[in-house]
Design goal:
The chain contains 13 helices and 15 strands. By secondary structure, the protein is an alpha/beta fold. The strands form 3 sheets. Strands 1, 2, 3, 4, 5, 6, 7, 8 and 9 form a 9-stranded mixed beta sheet that branches. A 4-stranded antiparallel beta sheet has the order 10-11-12-13, with helices on one face. Strand 11 and strand 12 form a beta hairpin. Helix 5 runs parallel beside helix 7. The termini are far apart. The relative contact order is 0.16.
C-alpha cells in the first residue's frame, strides 16, 4: 500500500492520562488501538502549550522555527511561507479535511485544508463526531486518499463535574493527593472517557465502511494535562504526550500493526516527515525540517531516531522563556527569566481546584525559580531533586548545557540574542500574577513596560 488514508485524532491537554498508559480511567478503545497497533511510551511535544506544539506537528519544526511562539488567540502567527502537512499532502493528490478544532491559523484553508467542517465555538466530541461519521459513510471517503484532522476540545478545562468514572481515581504522582485534587481528577477522567468513546465510534465507522484496511489512524494530544507542574512547564507532565498508531497490515511492511510498544524517545515534529514519507512519491519533503521520520524505528531498522530531545516555551500568558534538553536519563532546563520569576510552578496554568489547592497548601507558587534545573530521571522521575548546583554533577550539567546551546545555535533560536519581543499585534499579560484577570497589553505596550523599546 503506497498511499494510505490518514486520520489524525488530536485532543487538548491530555498528556498520557489514559488507561492504555496505566493512568486515568479505563480506556477500552484506546487499549484496543494500542493492542493492535503501536504505542509510543516516550512521546513528547516541542512545547507545553497548544498553538506552538500543534504547529510543530503540522510543520516538523520547533516553535522558534515556524514562528508561532505564543498562542494563536493572543495574536501570535506562523511565519509566512512555512509549509504545512495538509498543504503538502493536498499538493500530492490527497483530499484534505478538517473536522472540528485547530489552533494553528485563523483561516484553516491557509493550512491546506480543502474541506472544513467546524461549527463556531462547538468543538466538543459530540459536535465533531457526526460530521466525521457522515463523511466516512459517504462515497467521498473512497474516491481518493484523504488526510483528515479530527480536533476536539476535550480535555481542556473547565471540566464538567462527574459523579463517577470507569476505574479508580489516581492523582498524578507529581500532585498532592487530597480530596480536592481527587475530585478534580475524577472530572478529568470522565472527559477522557468521552474521548475514548469517540475513538471507538471512529474505529467502528472505518470498519463498517471498509476503510480500516487502507487507513492509518493516529491518536495524540498537544501537551500535558492542565494541572500545576504540567501544562506551561517543561517538567515531564507538561511535555509528555500520548501517541498511538494503527494501520493496515500491508502498510510499510506491517510497521503500524501487530501490537507493539516502542520506548525510544520521539517528538511531535517527527509526525510530518513520517507521514510525508508514507504519502508516496508525490509528497515533497521540505528542505528544512527539525523532525525525523519514524519509519526506521517502526520497521526495526533503527533503535532510535534522536540521541536527545529539545523543548521550549517563549510566551504563554506572558513572557516566560524556557529551553530544555532531555536524554534517556538526564534533563536540563534553563530559565532565561529566572531573576524575574518568584515561582517554581508557572502561575499562568489554567484556573482549577487543583491549582487553588497547591497555592493554598504548598510553597510551589512562592518558591523562587532557579536559572538551571538538572534532573537524573532514572533516579528521580518526579523531578524533585535539582542537581544543577551539585559539584558531583557539574560535568553532566556542563555537557547538557553545551548541548542545549548548540541546538539553539544550529536552529537559529532568537533567544540566544536576548529577549524575544512579542509579534506585532499580539496581546500578552503584563506579568505572571496569581490573578487570572491580569492586565492584557498590546505588544507595543508590553515592550514599553519591559523597557525593550520597539
Amino acid at each position: 500500500m503506497s498511499r494510505p488514508n490518514i486520520l489524525l485524532f488530536i485532543t487538548h491537554d491530555t498528556g498520557r492520562h489514559l488507561g492504555c498508559y496505566g493512568r486515568g480511567p479505563a480506556t477500552p478503545n484506546l487499549d484496543r488501538m494500542a493492542a493492535a497497533g503501536v504505542c509510543f511510551t516516550q512521546a513528547y511535544c516541542t512545547a507545553p502549550q497548544c498553538s506552538p506544539s500543534r504547529t510543530s506537528l503540522m510543520t516538523g519544526l520547533y516553535p522558534h522555527g515556524h514562528g508561532l511562539i505564543g498562542l494563536l488567540n493572543k495574536g501570535f502567527r506562523r511565519t509566512p511561507g512555512i509549509p504545512t502537512l495538509p498543504d503538502i499532502l493536498a499538493e500530492a493528490g490527497y483530499a484534505t479535511y478538517l473536522f472540528g478544532f485547530q489552533h494553528e491559523a485563523e483561516d484553516p484553508a491557509s493550512l491546506g485544508y480543502q474541506h472544513v467542517y467546524r461549527k463556531p465555538k462547538a468543538y466538543e466530541c459530540a459536535d465533531v463526531l457526526p460530521d466525521l461519521a457522515a463523511f466516512l459513510d459517504s462515497p467521498a471517503a473512497r474516491e481518493k486518499p484523504f488526510y483528515a484532522s479530527v480536533g476536539v476540545r476535550e480535555t481542556h478545562r473547565p471540566f464538567p463535574h462527574a459523579a463517577s468514572c470507569r476505574g479508580a481515581v489516581r492523582v498524578p504522582a507529581h500532585m498532592p493527593d487530597s480530596e480536592v485534587t481527587r475530585a478534580d481528577v475524577l472530572d478529568l477522567n470522565a472527559v477522557v472517557e468521552t474521548v475514548d468513546d469517540t475513538l471507538g465510534a471512529i474505529l467502528a465507522a472505518l470498519d463498517r465502511n471498509g476503510l480500516a484496511g487502507r487507513t492509518l489512524v493516529i491518536f495524540t494530544t498537544d501537551h500535558g494535562i492542565a494541572f500545576p507542574g504540567a501544562k506551561a512547564t517543561l517538567f515531564e507532565p507538561g511535555i509528555e504526550t500520548a501517541l498511538l498508531m494503527l494501520g493496515p497490515a500491508d502498510l510499510a511492511g506491517g510497521a503500524f500493526a501487530g501490537g507493539r510498544s516502542i520506548g525510544a524517545p520521539v517528538s511531535n515534529i517527527d509526525l510530518m516527515p513520517t507521514l510525508l514519507e508514507l504519502g508516496g512519491a508525490g509528497a515533497r519533503v521540505p528542505a528544512r525540517l527539525h523532525g525525523r521520520s519514524l519509519l526506521p524505528l517502526l520497521s526495526g531498522a533503527a533503535e532510535a531516531v534522536h540521541a536527545c530531545l529539545f523543548f521550549e516555551q517563549t510566551y504563554h500568558s506572558g513572557y516566560d522563556p524556557l529551553r530544555a534538553v532531555r536524554s534517556g536519563r538526564h534533563k536540563l532546563i534553563k530559565s532565561f527569566e529566572a531573576a524575574n520569576r518568584t515561582c517554581y510552578f508557572a502561575r499562568h496554568v489554567d484556573p482549577s481546584p487543583s491549582k487553588n489547592y497547591v497555592v493554598e497548601h504548598t510553597d510551589l507558587f512562592r518558591t523562587p525559580r532557579p536559572e538551571l534545573y538538572l534532573f537524573d530521571l532514572a533516579a528521580d522521575p518526579l523531578e524533585t531533586n535539582n542537581l544543577a548546583q551539585d559539584p558531583a554533577h557539574a560535568a553532566v550539567r556542563d555537557e547538557w548545557l553545551a548541548q542545549l546551546e548548540g541546538w539553539m545555535r544550529a536552529t537559529g533560536d532568537p533567544l540566544l540574542n536576548g529577549h524575544v519581543p512579542p509579534q506585532p499585534g499580539a496581546i500578552v499579560a503584563s506579568d505572571d500574577q496569581f490573578d487570572e484577570a491580569t492586565r492584557q497589553l498590546t505588544a507595543e505596550q508590553y515592550c514599553e513596560l519591559r523597557g525593550w523599546g520597539t
